[in-house]
UniProtKB/TrEMBL annotation:
Name recorded for this polypeptide: NAD(P) transhydrogenase subunit alpha part 1
Family note: Belongs to the AlaDH/PNT family.
Reactions performed catalytically: NAD(+) + NADPH + H(+)(in) = NADH + NADP(+) + H(+)(out)
Major enzyme class: translocase
Domain Alanine dehydrogenase/pyridine nucleotide transhydrogenase N-terminal: start-end pairs: 4-137
Species in which this protein is naturally found: Mongoliibacter ruber
Domain Alanine dehydrogenase/pyridine nucleotide transhydrogenase NAD(H)-binding positions: 146-310
MF terms in GO: NADP binding; oxidoreductase activity; proton-translocating NAD(P)+ transhydrogenase activity
GO cellular component terms, A-Z: plasma membrane
Keywords recorded for this protein, A-Z: NAD, NADP, Nucleotide-binding, Translocase
EC number: 7.1.1.1
InterPro entries, A to Z: Ala_DH/PNT_CS2 (IPR008143), AlaDH/PNT_N (IPR007886), AlaDH/PNT_NAD(H)-bd (IPR007698), NAD(P)-bd_dom_sf (IPR036291)
Physiological role: The transhydrogenation between NADH and NADP is coupled to respiration and ATP hydrolysis and functions as a proton pump across the membrane.
Length: 373
């Protein structure tokens, strides 16, 4: 069985597997082929893949020959047409939000797995690319803010006077938000955080940050630990509280998301206009509508000296460790579907079923089935 590791498109610097992960894959009695130059943007040259026993192929050869195609960004319809009808296509296909691609894969009776669909259960934690990439994103967002901020993060007592610590406000304390809190704390900032889930409060406090409470949030125990949409009244109360905190903040990092919905608007235009000049807003939800009214995807906007950075794929800005984590998540997942060097799709396994977009002309993942109804 040939496993093909694809080179990612322009602008994506991660690779789905570094040589270390490929070495493990090869030890499972498989043949692994790498698209030429696939790892160079993550600092893994072709020869480092060859050193562990993989061979290098052109994209065309890989698409036509591989039995399992592994990548991060999805293939185009034209490229899918080049692959073997029996090939298993894997990536972060964004299948729930890309109905045209999902339909095409179902209509063409393809077998496809979409890594963002890995169920967020304890057993699947080691395969969860969303958590891995959110960890990278939360860390990197703080470094980016610290770099842009015209002030120190930590407190300093110097002969030239004392410097008070910067004040950082984190909105949304999920995986990315918690990593942002931990990183900002390590840099010595005074950190405040806010989330609609009460479960997040304990985690925020345990990281040494202060929790901003806004009472009256709606929670749904059946939402798998995720947030749900809030009432208009609650959202207004929340925006007013954020406004008060924003006046004192040097940095705001927003990470609030609701699966399947537009990101909630938390930082209004009046709030940005009232912030101190020099302060920085990093909006990690910019690609799903933005938590800040003035953010633009992949752009930095300057409003009276307040810089608002809208970021789409921050994990790609730290490609080496992001690729290492991605590859490890992939390996843990592939362990479920490869046995003795061959494909072994066990649809009795909830992780296999939950991650599978389609097989044999049918939608498989309950989330895809639900999307179709
Ligand atoms: P996410 O990216 O969907 O959202 C980020 C955060 O935004 C969440 O904490 C959410 O509560 C918050 N949020 C949404 N609306 C908000 C609002 N109006 N105001 C403030 N905050 C708001 O979430 P995520 O980081 O991927 O994960 C969230 C939770 O899911 C985790 O904390 C955990 O409980 C659970 N989880 C479980 C597993 C697992 O068991 N394998 C893995 C990952 C996450």
């Amino acid at each position: 069985m040939i496993i093909g590791i694809l080179k990612e498109p322009q602008g994506e610097s991660r690779v789905s597997m570094l040589p270390e992960a490929v070495k493990t894959l090869l030890s499972w009695n498989t043949e692994v082929c790498i698209e030429a130059d696939a790892g160079s943007t993550a600092y893994a040259e072709d020869n480092t893949y060859q050193d562990v026993g993989a061979s290098i192929k052109s994209r065309d050869e890989l698409l036509r020959q591989a039995d399992v195609l592994i990548g991060i960004q999805p293939l185009s319809p034209e490229e899918i047409a080049l692959t073997k009808p029996s090939a298993v296509i894997m990536g972060q296909l964004n299948a729930l939000y890309n109905p045209d691609l999902t339909k095409l894969l179902i209509d063409q009776k393809r077998t496809a797995f979409s890594m963002e669909l890995v169920p967020r259960t304890t057993r699947a934690q080691s395969m969860d690319v969303l958590s891995s990439m959110a960890t990278v994103t939360g860390y990197k967002a703080v470094l980016m803010a610290a770099d842009l901020l015209p002030r120190f993060f930590p407190m300093f007592m110097t002969a030239a006077g004392s410097i008070t610590p910067s004040r950082v406000l984190i909105l949304g304390a999920g995986v990315a938000g918690l990593q942002a809190i931990a990183t900002a704390r390590r840099l010595g900032a005074s950190v405040f955080a806010f989330d609609v889930r009460q479960a997040a409060k304990e985690e925020v406090l345990s990281l040494g940050a202060k929790f901003v409470d806004v009472e009256g949030a709606t929670e749904d125990k059946g939402a798998g630990g995720y947030a749900v949409e809030q009432s208009a009244e609650y959202l207004q109360k929340q925006k007013d509280t954020i406004h008060e905190h924003a006046l004192k903040a040097d940095v705001i990092i927003t990470t609030a998301q609701i699966p399947g919905r537009k990101a909630p608007l938390l930082v209004e235009e009046r709030t940005v206009r009232a912030m101190k000049p020099g302060s920085v807003v990093i909006d990690l939800a910019a690609s799903s509508g933005g938590n800040c009214a003035l953010s633009q995807p992949d752009q930095t906007v300057n409003i009276n000296g307040v810089r608002i950075v809208g970021i789409e794929n921050l994990a790609a800005k730290m490609p080496q460790d992001a690729s290492k984590m991605y590859g490890k998540n992939y390996l843990n997942f592939l362990k479920l579907i490869i046995k003795d060097g061959n494909l072994n799709l066990n649809f009795e396994d909830d992780i296999v079923t939950g991650t599978c977009v389609c097989h044999d002309g049918q939608a498989v993942s309950p989330r895809i089935v639900q999307m179709q109804n």
